[in-house]
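seq as requested:
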Amino acid sequence: MADSPSPPDHAGPPPESVPPDPSRRKFLKQAGLTAAAAATAGAADATARTPDVPGDGAPLPEEFWRDRMQAPDDGKRYGWVVDTRRCFGCHACEVACKAENDVPLGHFIRQTIYHDHQRENGQVARIMVPMACQHCEDAPCLKACPCGALHKGAGGSVQVDYDQCSGHAACKDACPYGAIYIDPVANQAVKCHNCTHRVEQGMEPACVPTCPSDALYFGDLNDPTSSVSRVAATLEAEAQLEVLRPEENTRPRMRFVTDATHPMAAWEPKIPRQGASYAPEAYDVFNWGEGGEQ
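struct tokens:
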């Protein structure tokens, strides 16, 4: 988000010496009344179409989200492979994501988690893990959304309809991975949407080609020739592919490459949980070591 512009220098008389324009005053008054009426009508409309919300991210009745959970019949299933062994924490993916999606300062659609892990032989390994929305098959954020904004888009990507989002934050409370934040200006939910606007043009999400270590792979899991399918087949022969917090039963579409030097159990506690979001405190060096969980 751009910084606020500096106030202009006034070379002429101070503003208070200029008589007010009655026509402008009338216009501003009318504009204010119109905006208030629109806000009241919008709130009434939102109330009329919003069901009773259980709170704390609990799912709504199935009839309210069943249709939105169904992805378009396009034959695609977009997913990710993250090679934690290759990431060296350069933050290029985060910067690309912020630039592509106009993410404000202090907020993150994706974040690199740091962890200093002591191995059994006494050596210390620094693990860096790029994190973002898991685009779950059974997305709890979608089930909790009271305004019907969360839905499945192309390839099953979990997306937000900003013509519907009211900033209720039930989706944020429901996400088991802390991947959603509420925009402080628009008061709407923001998350990774797989850069759908780029994918529709035959490009990859902005973070993928920006990664200098080839730690991020994205594509159609239904296509055995896609880069993500090919690298998954190769990596499964030499390491282990795991999903984050399988006990949540969300069936996430992001898999992480782990091995003895990069065990998921070491860094998993650093990932935010329900009701939380990625935060600048994650970069605090005191949170890198053992016991520094967020």
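The chain has one domain: 62-287.
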